[in-house]
């Protein structure tokens, strides 16, 4: 038996969401909306928003941070890009996938299109989280190793599943939607060496492709039910290294990956976070300023090193804000010098700060075997060498924000307020009310209002 038909039956079947899973899903949806608003305020996804607005179509769904309504497919493109544009969105460690960036856009766009209730949108989101995380985790770092972004590869399937559930497709048609989605999986990692913005677009591509896949299946197009288990399925074609497709269905509906997604405290690649946090702890223990550091040596997981320590670019003087987000030395230097990392850390003007480049140049690392531990869950170890000759160590079991160190509800609210401004608590309350809400109206209105003051100020002539 192939996997896709069994997965499809679960996707559209009755769903009993435990309270802990519901709470986790609501936290991630809140984080996603707030990240999208912050990106809208910063203009970080303007190309995708411009194109989605130009595509237009029937007024089915809203572009987050605005009152503009376009087709659900176009909204998926814009909103997937908005959620991911600042690299501040969540990460599932097992699959190294940005789950909300491919779940929320489809759930909101199709949910708004069909007039779904808040409960229906939340249930569809949980389905999307499970599909995205499990499809990616079946090949841990396997898509990245082959030069592909797991978020887009897995995201086409989760978006198709979300759209299928919300539009009422039956299990057979949903299996076809999953099969069709597989032919749209991709997302090149070529941006890593260039600082190009294609990574920001990947969740948008995945969201629009998944919605299209469900529509095509509903219209009679067919997809291979062997899309997951071959021959010539997504893992055969796109994954490198060990694959366990059993992860997709194992304990589905009783063990929930939704509760294992981490929320980022910093808007940069999650694979650098554990080293950043370990370095910050070591500096605090040393009781000195960052200027006293003459050397910093880190132990880095091999799969992390290939992404944030790659030698094909200058890691001390990043070529673009996005390149800085994928430089472990630069991000470590930033958190040590400033004591914090925020969206403004990666402004273009900050890249020329000499004190950051100087400290980044003093960061070295060894690639350390971490057998049995995925990169995003690996421990962090650093040794600081200080000007007075002392050495100070720093250790963390894993990066903050997930696993055994989840971001608290209070810290999440602080992040939301930082992203959307003083209406953050109102937005958080609206998202908490989603299970009983008649629709998305309140959340969408608050998101638009939060972004509007910034947009209006940008339009006033100097």
Task: Give the SSE map.
Layout: H1 3-12, H2 19-42, H3 46-55, E1 61-62, E2 69-70, H4 72-84, E3 91-92, H5 100-114, H6 118-137, H7 142-145, H8 150-166, H9 171-182, H10 198-218, H11 234-238, H12 246-249, E4 261-262, H13 273-286, E5 293-300, H14 302-308, H15 321-325, H16 328-338, H17 354-360, E6 363-367, E7 380-386, E8 391-396, H18 409-420, H19 424-432, H20 441-459
Parallel strand pairs: 5-6
Antiparallel strand pairs: 1-2, 3-4, 5-7, 7-8
Rg from alpha-carbon coordinates: 21 Å
Poorly predicted tracts of residues: 455-462
Give me the count of strands.
Answer: 8
How many structural domains can be distinguished in the coordinates? 2
Largest sheet: 4 strands, mixed
Gap between N and C termini: 65 Å
Q: What's the CATH H-level homologous superfamily of the largest domain?
A: 2-methylcitrate dehydratase PrpD
Shape: globular
CATH class of the largest domain, anyone?
A: Mainly Alpha
- Provide the β-strand percentage band: 5-15%
Secondary-structure element string: HHHEEHEHHHHHHHHEHEHHHHEEEHHH
What is the CATH architecture assignment of the largest domain? Orthogonal Bundle
The averaged pLDDT comes out at 95
Please count the helical segments.
20
As for the CATH topology of the largest domain, it is: 2-methylcitrate dehydratase PrpD
């Amino acid at each position: 038996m192939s996997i896709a038909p069994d997965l499809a039956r679960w996707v559209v079947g009755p769903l009993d969401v435990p309270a802990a899973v519901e709470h986790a899903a609501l936290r991630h949806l809140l984080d996603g909306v707030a990240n999208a608003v912050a990106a809208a305020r910063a203009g970080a996804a303007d190309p995708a928003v411009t194109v989605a607005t130009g595509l237009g179509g029937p007024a089915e769904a809203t572009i987050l941070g605005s009152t503009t309504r376009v087709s659900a497919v176009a909204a998926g493109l814009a909103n997937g890009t908005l959620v991911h544009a600042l690299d501040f969105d969540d990460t599932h460690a097992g699959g190294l996938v940005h789950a909300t960036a491919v779940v929320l856009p489809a759930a909101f766009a199709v949910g708004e299109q069909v007039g779904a209730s808040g409960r229906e949108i939340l249930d569809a989101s949980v389905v999307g989280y499970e599909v995205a995380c499990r499809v990616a985790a079946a090949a841990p770092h396997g898509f990245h190793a082959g030069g592909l972004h797991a978020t887009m590869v897995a995201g086409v399937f989760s978006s198709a599943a979300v759209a299928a559930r919300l539009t009422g497709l039956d299990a057979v048609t949903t299996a076809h939607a999953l099969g069709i989605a597989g032919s749209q999986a991709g997302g090149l990692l070529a941006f890593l060496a260039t600082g190009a913005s294609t990574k920001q677009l990947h969740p948008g591509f995945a969201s629009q492709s998944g919605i299209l896949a469900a529509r095509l299946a509903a219209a009679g197009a067919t997809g291979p039910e062997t899309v997951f288990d071959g021959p010539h399925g997504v893992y055969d074609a796109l994954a490198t290294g060990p694959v366990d497709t059993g992860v997709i269905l194992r304990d589905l509906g009783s063990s929930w990956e939704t509760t294992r997604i981490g929320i980022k405290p910093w808007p940069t690649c999650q694979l650098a976070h554990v080293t950043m946090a370990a370095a910050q702890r070591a500096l605090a223990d040393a009781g000195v300023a960052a200027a006293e550091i003459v050397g910093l040596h880190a132990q880095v997981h091999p799969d992390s090193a290939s992404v944030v320590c790659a030698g094909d670019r200058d890691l001390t003087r990043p070529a673009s804000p996005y390149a800085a987000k994928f430089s472990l030395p630069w991000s470590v230097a930033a958190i040590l010098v400033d004591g914090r990392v925020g969206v403004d850390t990666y402004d273009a003007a900050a890249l020329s700060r000499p004190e950051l480049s100087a400290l980044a140049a003093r960061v070295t690392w060894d690639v350390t075997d971490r057998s049995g531990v995925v990169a995003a869950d690996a421990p962090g170890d650093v040794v600081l060498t200080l000007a007075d000759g002392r050495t100070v160590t720093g250790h963390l079991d894993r990066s903050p924000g997930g696993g055994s160190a989840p971001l608290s509800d209070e810290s999440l609210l602080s992040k939301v307020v930082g992203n959307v401004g003083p209406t953050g608590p109102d937005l958080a309350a609206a998202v908490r009310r989603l299970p009983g809400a008649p629709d998305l109206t309140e959340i969408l209105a608050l998101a638009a209002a939060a972004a509007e003051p910034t947009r209006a100020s940008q339009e006033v002539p100097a």
